[in-house]
Amino acid sequence: MSTTATAENLSLPLELPPETAELQERARRFVDEEIIPLEQEAERSYGRLPQETIDRIKRAAIEADLNGGQHSPEFGGQGWSLLDWVVVEEQYGRSTNGIYWHVPNAYNVFHHATPEQAEKYLRPAIAGRLKDAYAVTEANAGSDPSRIESTATRTDSGYRINGEKWFVTSGDIADVLIVMANVMDGNEALPTLFLIDADAPGVEIVEDPQFTHHYPEGHPTISFTEVEVGEDAVVEGVGEGNDLQRAWFLEERLGIAARGCGAMWRLLEESVEWATGREQGGSRVWDHQGVSFPLADSAADAAAGRLLTYQVAVLAGGDADLKVVHAKASMAKLFVSEAAFRCADRAVQALGGRGYMRRYAPERLLRELRVDRIWEGTSEIQRLIVTRGLERRGVERMIH
Question: What is the pLDDT of residue 2?
Answer without folding.
Answer: 41
